[in-house]
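We include the pair:
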Amino acid sequence: MVLAYTAAFGTKMDCCRQLNHYCITILLSNKSGALIKMKTLRLLAIVPTALAMSLVFTEANLAQTPEIKINRNFQPDPLILNGKSGGTVKSNCGNISTEPSQVIQVTESLPYLRLTVESEGKPTLLIDGPGGRFCVLADSYSGGKSEQSGFWQAGKYSLYVGEVSQRKYSYTLSISQKNK
C-alpha cells in the first residue's frame, strides 16, 4: 500500500473542507490503484501540536554547545575560544551558566595540556570530565587567570567559565600543549 497525504488549502483537491477548517485526508491505494479515503483529520487540531513539538526540539538543539576535538597534533596551538563568563547558577566555583561554556573531546590521553581563562573580572573554570568535577580559581601565581595544566585522560570535558562576582565578562580560553 502507498500512503499519500493531501492537504486542502482553499482548493477542492482530493481533500475535504468541513466547517471552514482546513483538513488533511489520509489516502491509501488498494491493489488496483484506486484511492481509498481512510481518515480525515482537522488541520487546525494538528498544526498547534506539531508547531509546539517543533519549537521544543529546535530549542533543545540550539542549547547544545558544539564539541571541539583535541588530539596530540591539534592546530592551531594555542587554540583560542571566546565567550561570556558567569551565569545564573551559584556554585562553589562562582556564578556559572546552566549549559557548558565549551565542550572539548580529548580523543587520546595527553601528557600535557594547559587551559587558561582570562577576563576583566575574576574568572573561574569548572571542569566536569572523566576524572571528576573540579574548580580552578584565579590566583596571583597565574596573574589573575584561571589555569589548569598537566596530564589529561581521553574523554569528554564540559567547561563552565564562571565569575566570582554576579557580573558577566567577555573571556578568552586558551588551550595549548606547549609548556610555558
Notes: The radius of gyration is 27 Å. The chain has a mean pLDDT of 77.
